[in-house]
TrEMBL record:
Domain ABC transporter: 4-240
Highest taxon, organism lineage: Bacteria
BP GO terms, sorted: iron ion transport
Keyword ATP-binding: yes
Full protein name: ABC transporter ATP-binding protein
Localization per record: Cell membrane
Length: 264
């Protein structure tokens, strides 16, 4: 099943074409990862799929309707986005920050009702951040803060969650912690996860569907074996990679690689 698609999507940034005629289908209730070199348009694509930025032409459809024609609060009940620079909490406590996820459901003066508190507490429990409930977000470690931001996205009660490089600046243990949390949410809550990742092995391990971008165009999309192979990696990153199959997960991993010099 597919709920979110783009058709002939073109996006400009500072009058420069960034995304070129992209047609994608995001598998429902799966984890989709977008990979590609710096500046290839990964974050731009993510933002255009969530209506953060406008596109020049083409269309993004959610449930058969253009996202630009949907009511803002109604759309916010369907999709949540965690941007790459989600680190400005303004002195808020964990509970206060997570409560912002209830904005699409607020009426009048925006007072939290019983249902709101139930969802907030559930989101804290699901992300294992309930122990930090009354602590300032700024006082938490990087991994803890990232889990709190994910809790805020969960509090929106959306079927689709977008994350732009959720593991950036985290050490290896915290990266795995975040990715395993997202995998658990996908499997237990059937949330559709769409995220940008830099690490190819993490993408191969955790994604059901991978989209490889270069210069604003899709080079290849499909499952990990279709995308994480030496031919595609050469086209996308200009590197000669040795890919093997990891015996436990049966997923491809990049064992080693070298830059291909003298080629673009």
């Amino acid at each position: 099943m597919v709920r979110l698609v783009s058709k002939d999507l073109n996006v400009l940034y500072d009058k420069q074409s960034i995304i070129h005629n992209i047609n994608i289908e995001i598998p429902d209730k799966k984890i989709t990862t977008i990979i590609g070199p710096n500046g290839c348009g990964k974050s731009t694509l993510l933002k255009s799929l969530t209506r953060i930025i406008n596109h020049e032409s083409g269309v993004v459809l959610l449930d058969g309707e253009s996202i630009h024609k949907q009511n803002t609060k109604a759309l916010a009940k369907k999709m949540a986005i965690l941007p790459q620079t989600a680190d400005h909490s303004g002195g808020l406590t964990v509970q206060e920050l997570v409560s912002y996820g209830r904005f699409p459901y607020q009426k009048g003066f925006g007072r939290l009702n019983k249902r709101d508190h139930e969802v907030i507490n559930w989101a804290l429990k699901a992300t294992k951040t309930e122990a930090f409930k009354y602590r300032p977000v700024d006082a938490l470690s990087g991994g803890q803060r990232q889990r709190v931001w994910i809790a805020m996205a969960l509090a929106q009660e959306t079927d689709i969650i977008f994350l732009d490089e959720p593991t950036t600046y985290l050490d290896m243990a915290h990266q795995l912690e975040i990715l395993e949390l997202l995998q658990e949410l996908n499997q237990s809550e059937e949330r559709t996860i769409v995220m940008v990742l830099h690490d190819l092995n993490q993408a191969a391990r955790f994604a059901d569907h991978i989209i490889a971008l270069k210069d604003g165009e899709i080079i290849k999309s499909g499952d990990s074996h279709s995308v994480i192979n030496s031919e595609v990696i050469k086209k996308v990153f200009n590197i000669d990679a040795q890919i093997i199959t990891e015996p436990i997960s049966n997923k491809p991993i990049c064992l080693t690689y070298n830059l291909i010099k003298g080629e673009n």
